C-alpha cells in the first residue's frame, strides 16, 4: 500500500486547511480526527478542491500511523493544552524510534519544552511550531514559527517551507531556535495581535461615539487607511467587518454583535512573560485588560447607571486618528520585540528579530507593510530598540503629537482608550531622561530601609528618616 508523506491529526478549522495546503503542494497526507464527522466533512472539501487523491483518511489512529512513511512525521493540530498531551499519549505506543511529532497549535512554550524533554529520551522527535493566518492562511500559506532541534527542523523543513506564505518569493517559515522558541514567538505574535486589534477598536470607538459615524462611514475610513502607511491585514478586515450587513435585520452586523471579547490565553501569556522578564509591554497588557473589562458587561451596565451615560462629540480629526494608530503600533511592536529579545537572552535561543519580522510580513494575522520596514531596521542592528532606529524616530516624531491629541480628546470626552493611552504613557516614560522613581526610592528607603543611589556618592545609601510617623509629624 502507498504510504503518506506526512500525517495530520485534528481536522478542525486549522488542521483541515493545513492538510489541504499540504496536499496542494504535492505531498500525500494521511489525516485523522477524534470525531468521524470532521473526517467526512474534510473529504467532501478535499474532493471539491480536486485534492482527494492526495489525502488518506483514517478514523482508526493505529491505522493512521501505519499509513505514514517511516520515519514518520505527524502533525498534531488539536485544541491547545490537555488535548495535546492526551494525543501524545495515544500516539506514543504507535510510533517508532526516529519518528517525530510536529505540534502546531497555540501551546504555552513551557508545555512544549516539557513535551520535548518527555519525548526525547523515548527517541521521538518533537517540534513546537507556531502557525498564524487563521483559516485562510492555513489553507493558502500561513506564517510558520518553528522551535525545536535543528535536526528535526531539517527533516520537516521541505514541507513546512512549501506550505508557508511567501513574501516576494521568500518563505514565511523559519526555524527560530531550540525548545519552546517557536511557541514563545507565536505567543508574542498573538500579544501584538491583541494590541493591534484593541487599538483599532479604540479608534473605531472614537469614530462611532465621539464623531457620530455609522458603521459604513467607519468602514470607508479603514479602507482608505489600508491604502496608506497602516496597510495591513487587520485594517483590511476591519473595513470588511464594518461594512457587513445582517441579512435578517438589514442593520450593520457589527452593531448587533455583543461587545464582549473572547480570549483563549496567548494574550495573557504574553503579558505574564513581559512582567516576568521585567520588560514593559503596556500596549499588550492594556489590550488584555480591555478584553477582560469587555467581558464584564453586566458590571459595565451597572456602572453606566451609577455614573451616567457619556455623550457628546469630541474634537478630533480622522488624520489624527490615523497617525495615533501608527504611533500606538510602533510602541506596541517595540514592546513585543523587546519581550522576545529578552526571553531569547534568558533562554540562550539566539532569536534573530530580523528573521521574525521577515516571516511575519505575509501569511499571519499581523502582516503589514510596516513589518517590512521593521525587518530592515532589525537587519541593520539585531539589538535595536525600534524607538531608537532613525527611520522610526522620524515616524514617531511625526505621529506622537496626534496620539497625544487623540488620548487627550478621549480622556476629556470620556472615551476609553486603554491601549492607546498606555502606549503614549510608555513612550513618554521611555523618552524622559529624568523620571520620578527617585521619589519611589525615597519612599522605599523610608519604610523598609531598601537603600537608594546618589550619583557620585554610591549605591545602597540611606536617608536620615524619622523612626516613626509620629516623630515625622512633630
Ligand atoms: N482558529 C485559528 O484562527 C487559529 C488557531 N490556532 C490554534 O490551532 C489549534 C487548533 O485550533 P482550531 O483548528 O481553530 O480548533 P477547532 O476548534 O476548529 O478544532 C479543534 C480540533 O481539536 C480536536 N480536539 C479537541 N480536543 C481533543 C481531544 N481531547 N483529543 C483529540 N482531539 C481533540 C477536535 O476534534 P473533534 O472534532 O473530535 O472535537 C478538532 O479537530 C489550537 O491550538 C488553536 O489555538 C492557531 C492559529 C490560528
Ligand atoms: O492564533 C490565532 C491567530 O494568530 C488564533 O486565532 C487565536 O485563537 C487568537 O487568539 P484569541 O482567541 O485569544 O483571540
TrEMBL record:
Its EC number is 1.1.1.44. The keyword Nucleotide-binding does not apply. NADP(+) binds at residues 10-15, 33-35, 78-80, 106. GO terms for biological process: D-gluconate metabolic process; pentose-phosphate shunt. One of its GO terms (molecular function) is NADP binding. The active site is at 186 (proton acceptor), 193 (proton donor). It holds the Pfam family NAD_binding_2. Gene3D superfamilies: 6-Phosphogluconate Dehydrogenase, domain 3, N-(1-d-carboxylethyl)-l-norvaline Dehydrogenase, domain 2, NAD(P)-binding Rossmann-like Domain. It catalyses: 6-phospho-D-gluconate + NADP(+) = D-ribulose 5-phosphate + CO2 + NADPH. Keywords: Gluconate utilization, NADP, Oxidoreductase, Pentose shunt. Substrate binds at residues 106, 132-134, 189-190, 194, 264, 291, 444, 450. Pathway: Carbohydrate degradation; pentose phosphate pathway; D-ribulose 5-phosphate from D-glucose 6-phosphate (oxidative stage): step 3/3. InterPro entries: 6-PGluconate_DH-like_C_sf, 6PGD_dom2, 6PGDH_C, 6PGDH_Gnd/GntZ, 6PGDH_NADP-bd, 6PGdom_BS, NAD(P)-bd_dom_sf, Pgluconate_DH. Residues 182-466 form the 6-phosphogluconate dehydrogenase C-terminal domain. NCBIfam families: gnd, PRK09287.1. Belongs to the 6-phosphogluconate dehydrogenase family. Catalyzes the oxidative decarboxylation of 6-phosphogluconate to ribulose 5-phosphate and CO(2), with concomitant reduction of NADP to NADPH. This is 6-phosphogluconate dehydrogenase, decarboxylating.
Amino acid at each position: 500500500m502507498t504510504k503518506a508523506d506526512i500525517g495530520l491529526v485534528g481536522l478542525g478549522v486549522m488542521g483541515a486547511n493545513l492538510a489541504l495546503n499540504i496536499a496542494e503542494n504535492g505531498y500525500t497526507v494521511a489525516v485523522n480526527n477524534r470525531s468521524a464527522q470532521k473526517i467526512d466533512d474534510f473529504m467532501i472539501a478535499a474532493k471539491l478542491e480536486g485534492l482527494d487523491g492526495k489525502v488518506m483518511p483514517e478514523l482508526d489512529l493505529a491505522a493512521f500511523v501505519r499509513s505514514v512513511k517511516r520515519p514518520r512525521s505527524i502533525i498534531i493540530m488539536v485544541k491547545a493544552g490537555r488535548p495535546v498531551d492526551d494525543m501524545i499519549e495515544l500516539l506514543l505506543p504507535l510510533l517508532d524510534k526516529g519518528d517525530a511529532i510536529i505540534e502546531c497549535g497555540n501551546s504555552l512554550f513551557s508545555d512544549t519544552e516539557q513535551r520535548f524533554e518527555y519525548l526525547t529520551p523515548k527517541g521521538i522527535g518533537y517540534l513546537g511550531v507556531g502557525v498564524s493566518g487563521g483559516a485562510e492562511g492555513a489553507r493558502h500559506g500561513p506564517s510558520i514559527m518553528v522551535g525545536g532541534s535543528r535536526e528535526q527542523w531539517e527533516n520537516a523543513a521541505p514541507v513546512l517551507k512549501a506550505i508557508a506564505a511567501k513574501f516576494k518569493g521568500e518563505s514565511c517559515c523559519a526555524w527560530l531556535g531550540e525548545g519552546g522558541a517557536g511557541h514563545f514567538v507565536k505567543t508574542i505574535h498573538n500579544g501584538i495581535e491583541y494590541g493591534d486589534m484593541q487599538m483599532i477598536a479604540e479608534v473605531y470607538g472614537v469614530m462611532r461615539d465621539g464623531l457620530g459615524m455609522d458603521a459604513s462611514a467607519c468602514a470607508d475610513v479603514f479602507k482608505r487607511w489600508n491604502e496608506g502607511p497602516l496597510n495591513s491585514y487587520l485594517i483590511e478586515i476591519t473595513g470588511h467587518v464594518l461594512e457587513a450587513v445582517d441579512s435578517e435585520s438589514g442593520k450593520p452586523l457589527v452593531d448587533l454583535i455583543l461587545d464582549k471579547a473572547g480570549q483563549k490565553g496567548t494574550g495573557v501569556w504574553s503579558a505574564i512573560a513581559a512582567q516576568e522578564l521585567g520588560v514593559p509591554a503596556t500596549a499588550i497588557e492594556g489590550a488584555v485588560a480591555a478584553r477582560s473589562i469587555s467581558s464584564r458587561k453586566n458590571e459595565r451596565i451597572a456602572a453606566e447607571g451609577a455614573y451616567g451615560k457619556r455623550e457628546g462629540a469630541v474634537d478630533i480629526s480622522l488624520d489624527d486618528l490615523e497617525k495615533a494608530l501608527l504611533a500606538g503600533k510602533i510602541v506596541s511592536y517595540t514592546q513585543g520585540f523587546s519581550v522576545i529579545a529578552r526571553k531569547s537572552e534568558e533562554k540562550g535561543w539566539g532569536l534573530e528579530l530580523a528573521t521574525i519580522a521577515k516571516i511575519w510580513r505575509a501569511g499571519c494575522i499581523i502582516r503589514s507593510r510596516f513589518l517590512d520596514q521593521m525587518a530592515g531596521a532589525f537587519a541593520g542592528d539585531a539589538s535595536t530598540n525600534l524607538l531608537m532606529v532613525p527611520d522610526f524616530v522620524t515616524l514617531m516624531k511625526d505621529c506622537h503629537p496626534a496620539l497625544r491629541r487623540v488620548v487627550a480628546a478621549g480622556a476629556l470626552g470620556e472615551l476609553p482608550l486603554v491601549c492607546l493611552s498606555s502606549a503614549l504613557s510608555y513612550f513618554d516614560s521611555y523618552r524622559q531622561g529624568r523620571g520620578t522613581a527617585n521619589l519611589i526610592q525615597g519612599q522605599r528607603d523610608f519604610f523598609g530601609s531598601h537603600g537608594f543611589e546618589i550619583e557620585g556618592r554610591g549605591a545602597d545609601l540611606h536617608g536620615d528618616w524619622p523612626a516613626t510617623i509620629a516623630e515625622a509629624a512633630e
